Amino acid sequence: MKIDLEQIKFNENGLIPAIVQDHETKEVLILAYMNEESIKMTIKLRQAVFWSRSRSEIWHKGATSGDYLNIKSIALDCDLDAILLLVEMVGDAACHNGTSSCFIDENNNELRAII
Amino acid sequence: MKIDLEQIKFNENGLIPAIVQDHETKEVLILAYMNEESIKMTIKLRQAVFWSRSRSEIWHKGATSGDYLNIKSIALDCDLDAILLLVEMVGDAACHNGTSSCFIDENNNELRAII
Question: What's the pTM value of the predicted model, to 2 decimals?
Fold first, then answer.
């Protein structure tokens, strides 16, 4: 079922959370945010483009690091308020701290475990 | 690295997004939200407890359906503003629409594909 961008339920800041998952390993890499413009750019470029909440600007992942995230699929959930991106990592680091995932450390341990 | 709940960066509504992933299949099941109370209940019960934004109440997943999500691990990302829950599904449906995941339909196709 294909959907139109107009159907997406953005939050009060015009953003929607996007879960980024490696299409092969299934590892969850990062949780980022997209606005309508970044979704359109992602579709056009076939590379992940987010909205940086800290810098308040469009964030083409990999534009400075080379660690692009090539898009394999984009899907919305049943409530149309969350996105799942399946990606192919171009480099080794999807996370800005240099690890593949923002949820694990360099030894593949959970970065910040609660339990 | 163990962290304290006080370190968690909740958003302006006192919530943090929680990615729920099956610990075996690695399938992303749902994106839900937690507040501090639901995190404490999750730790205590070892079952996923969220904050329902639509009902504005604590939501112990499975309390009515029996489809509990048993907790395998809880980890925060590097920015301390997103949670990854690894879970074991007790029933077949993690999503309220009856499918295992809120991102796929009953035929394991993406529910609402953009591309």
Answer: 0.94
